[in-house]
Automatic annotation (TrEMBL):
Domain Glycine cleavage system P-protein N-terminal: 2-431
Gene3D superfamilies: Aspartate Aminotransferase, domain 1, Type I PLP-dependent aspartate aminotransferase-like (Major domain)
Domain of life from the UniProt record: Archaea
Alphabetical list of InterPro entries matching this protein: GcvPA, GDC-P_N, PyrdxlP-dep_Trfase, PyrdxlP-dep_Trfase_major, PyrdxlP-dep_Trfase_small
The protein's name: Glycine dehydrogenase (Decarboxylating) subunit 1
PANTHER family, per the entry: GLYCINE CLEAVAGE SYSTEM P-PROTEIN, GLYCINE DEHYDROGENASE (DECARBOXYLATING)
UniProt KW keywords: Oxidoreductase
E.C. designation(s): 1.4.4.2
Gene Ontology MF annotations: glycine dehydrogenase (decarboxylating) activity
Organism expressing this protein natively: Candidatus Lokiarchaeum ossiferum
Length: 438
């Protein structure tokens, strides 16, 4: 419906009803320094003129021919069917499906998403998605404390700095102690006071962790500690072992089928064991049958929000439904299937390792780690600023300078290669790297 502003008479009636004489009196608690006298807005435009104006503004955005940046947000090919399905009005305008009888279509879509994720990850149960992997990590950390009644969280060094920051923020509000530990000190840091152990693989630097070793150490040193495995780019599940093949309690990941855009939106995949299912935040969709008959229907089976259960028993305040992003992820997985996801993962690891080997051959460039990597790796450059500048000159969105997060690592960059980088893109990138070394 159209927005109809209140007229002067209506506003006066409303103010009189609450015992306030004017709008100024209504806002008198707000410091005058924060009040705006007048918004600096241009005059209104007709629809035709507005469209022309927006077109001109949109041309200020620069679209690079190719990108070699990742660090948690990746450029992958997204089939056109994804945008087509999520743009349909019945999905695009849908809200949280509180009324099952009026939301059967979207409830089924969420159920199919949960089913697809559980098959892909080999975990027991998946919720209807979180905001992103960072908040999923944080919710997993608090879930560990609910399950163990302990208040100490360990995070393995190598997690994305922003994931760590998000976990710390959530835990600070609940008086949960957090600690970052290097692999060399993990064994001595573990004890029976640990509620959860969080790690990321591939980690922030693209390195694949030895998950069997990590789980073995945790189980030996802290038997009740819950293990949380996080993944920034789940396309690697096309070639790596599924989380459920390891002895972990919670798996979190960024979603698939969504572009980086300007940093979102995205969704956080969250899966766990059946034993911990009732400690999981969010919601779970299930299938039920009619009492008198054989007809099936979809329902909100588990809801851990304070809006649905007693506040003191609520496990989370996640309230925004990520179902549109979830649907994009589901359609993406359906489009690719098992074979397609394997091809994406294979291209990612092969192309990235080819670029890694070739860059290491250029005088002045040195690899920082020797461990296996997925689609990212860290390399030391002879001149980072020159390299970044040369990339932009050649219409390449450059790798991430690690100084963005770690000022002491000013000579290193995090290079990302995906299936979107063609042979020509890679050859150009390597040529630019050589020129920047001169």
């Amino acid at each position: 419906m159209d927005y109809v502003p209140h007229d002067k008479k209506t506003m006066e009636t409303m103010l009189a009803k609450i015992g306030v004489s004017s709008m100024e009196e209504l806002y008198e608690d707000i410091p005058k320094s924060l009040l705006l006298e007048k918004l600096n807005l241009p005059e209104g435009l007709s629809e035709a003129d507005l469209l022309k104006r927006m077109t001109v503004l949109s041309k200020k955005n620069h679209l690079y021919r190719t990108a070699f940046i990742g660090a948690g947000s990746y450029y992958h090919f997204i089939p056109s069917l994804v945008d087509y399905v999520i743009s349909r009005s019945e999905f695009f305008t849908a809200y949280t499906p509180y009324q099952a009888e009026a939301s059967q279509g979207f409830l089924q879509a969420i159920y199919e998403y949960q089913s697809a994720i559980t098959r892909l990850t080999k975990m027991d149960v998946t919720n209807a998605s979180m905001y992103d992997v960072a908040s999923a990590f944080a919710e997993a950390a608090t879930m560990c404390t609910f399950a163990t009644r302990k208040s100490r969280i360990l995070m393995l060094e190598g997690m994305h700095p922003e994931y760590i920051e998000t976990v710390n923020t959530y835990c600070w509000g609940r008086n949960i102690q957090t600690e970052i530990v290097p692999l060399t000190k993990l064994e001595e840091s573990l004890n029976d006071d640990c509620a959860g152990f969080l790690f990321q693989s591939p980690n922030f630097y693209g390195e694949i962790e030895d998950i069997s070793y990590l789980t073995k150490i945790v189980r030996e040193k802290a038997k009740k500690c819950k293990i949380v495995y996080g993944m920034p780019d789940p396309t690697c599940l096309g070639i790596l072992k599924a989380p459920g093949d390891y002895d972990i309690d919670i798996f979190v990941s960024e979603g698939m089928g969504l572009p980086p855009s300007f940093g979102g939106p995205n969704l956080g995949i969250f899966a766990t064991t059946s034993k911990l299912m009732r400690k999981m935040p969010g919601r779970v969709i299930g299938v039920t049958k009619e009492i008198n008959g054989e007809g099936e229907g979809f329902v909100l089976t588990l809801q851990a929000r304070e809006q649905h259960i007693r506040r003191e028993k609520a496990l989370s305040n996640i309230c925004s439904n990520q179902s549109l992003c979830m649907l994009a992820c589901l359609v993406y997985m359906v489009c690719l299937g098992k074979t397609g996801l394997k091809q994406v993962g294979t291209q990612n690891i092969q192309k990235a390792n080819y670029v890694k080997r070739e860059m290491a051959k250029i005088p002045g460039y040195n690899l920082k780690e020797s461990r296996a990597t997925y689609n990212e790796f860290v390399i030391e450059c002879p001149n980072v600023d020159k390299f970044i500048g040369k990339c932009k000159e050649n219409d390449i969105l450059p790798p991430l300078p690690l100084s963005h997060y770690f000022p002491e690592r000013s000579s290193e960059v995090l290079v990302c290669v995906t299936e979107q980088n063609s042979k020509e893109d890679i050859e150009l990138f390597l040529r630019v790297a050589k020129e920047a070394a001169l």
